[in-house]
Design a protein that fits this description.
By secondary structure, this protein is α/β, with parallel strands linked by helices. It has 2 domains: 82 residues, Methionine synthase domain (Methyltransferase, Methionine Synthase (B12-binding Domains), Chain A, domain 1); 132 residues, Cobalamin-binding domain (Rossmann fold, 3-Layer(aba) Sandwich). 51% of the residues lie in helices and 9% in strands. A 5-stranded parallel β-sheet has the order 2-1-3-4-5, sandwiched between helices. Helix 9 links the parallel strand 4 and strand 5. The chain is elongated and about 55 Å long.
C-alpha cells in the first residue's frame, strides 16, 4: 500500500483552526482597531506561551503597560472565559491561555516597576489529602482573567494552612475543591475553625464525589459551586459586599 504523503492535517489544533475561520464569540466585546493589541488578544486565546513575550514587547512600543494588560491580555482571557462557558474550550486550552496571560502580565509589571493592581484577593485550595486539583486550576484561571489576585495554596492543603492564609491575606472569598468523599470533610473543619477565629467570609466549595449542595450548605459560610465558571461572578458579588448568606441564597436557592 502506498504511504500517505499528505501531512498537512497532522498535529493541527482544530479548536483554534475553527476560531481563526471568522469565529466570533457571541459575547465578545473585543472591537479594537489597534492591531498590536489584537495580536496580544489572539495570542492569549491561542495559548501560545512561546510567542507571547515577543508579542507583548511589540505592543509595549505603542501602548502603556496598563493598556496592554487591560485591553490585550485580560480581553483575551475574557474571550477564553466565554469559550469555556460555551463548552468550546476545555481544560487544556483554558490553562494554556491562563499561563500565556500570566507571562504577559509579568512582562508588563516589570516594565511598570510594580505589580498590576488587582480588584481583590481570593484564596483557593484543594482539600487536605486530595490531589485532584484540575477544578481548582480552572477556578484560578477564570478568577485571574476577571482581575482578581489569586492566592493558590495548591493541592492536599492542611486545614491549618488554609486558615493561616485567610488570616494573612484577608481575602473576600475562599474556595475549596475536592474530588473524593474521603477528603471533603476538611471543608467542614475549615468552616468550624473560621467561626471559632471570628473569620466570616464566603467559602465556595465544589468538586466531585459527595460534594453536593446539601453537604456544602450544611455548614456555616458554605456556598456550593456547581461550575467553575461561577467563580468570577461570586467573587464580584463578594467584592460588592454581599454576605455569604446572600451568596448562598443567590446560587443555592
Amino acid at each position: 500500500m502506498k504511504p500517505n504523503q499528505e501531512f498537512s492535517n497532522i498535529f493541527v489544533r482544530y479548536d483554534l483552526n475553527a476560531l481563526h475561520k471568522d469565529f466570533k464569540a457571541k459575547g465578545s466585546k473585543t472591537k479594537l482597531p489597534r492591531s498590536s493589541l489584537q495580536v496580544v488578544i489572539d495570542t492569549v486565546i491561542a495559548g501560545e506561551n512561546e510567542t507571547i513575550s515577543d508579542v507583548v514587547q511589540q505592543a509595549l512600543t505603542q501602548h502603556t503597560p496598563l493598556e496592554v494588560i487591560r485591553e490585550g491580555l485580560i480581553r483575551g482571557m475574557e474571550e477564553v472565559g466565554y469559550l469555556w462557558r460555551e463548552r468550546i474550550y476545555y481544560l487544556p486550552q483554558t490553562l494554556a491561555a491562563s499561563d500565556t496571560m500570566q507571562i504577559g502580565i509579568e512582562i508588563c509589571e516589570a516594565k511598570m516597576g510594580h505589580s498590576y493592581k488587582k480588584k481583590a484577593v481570593v484564596v483557593t485550595h484543594t482539600a487536605d489529602g486530595d490531589l485532584h486539583d484540575l477544578g481548582q486550576k480552572i477556578v484560578n484561571a477564570l478568577l485571574r482573567a476577571s482581575g482578581f489576585e489569586v492566592i493558590d495554596l495548591g493541592k492536599d492543603v492542611p486545614v491549618e494552612e488554609v486558615l493561616v492564609a485567610v488570616e494573612k491575606y484577608h481575602p473576600i472569598m475562599l474556595t475549596g475543591t475536592a474530588g473524593l468523599t474521603l477528603t471533603m470533610n476538611a471543608f467542614e473543619r475549615i468552616s468550624q475553625e473560621l467561626s471559632h477565629r471570628g473569620l466570616e467570609l464566603p467559602f465556595v466549595c465544589g468538586g466531585g464525589g459527595g460534594v453536593t449542595a446539601d453537604f456544602v450548605t450544611s455548614f456555616q459560610f458554605g456556598i456550593y459551586g456547581a461550575d467553575a465558571a461561577q467563580a468570577p461572578q461570586m467573587a464580584e458579588d463578594a467584592l460588592a459586599g454581599k454576605s455569604w448568606l446572600e451568596l448562598r441564597k443567590k446560587y443555592n436557592g
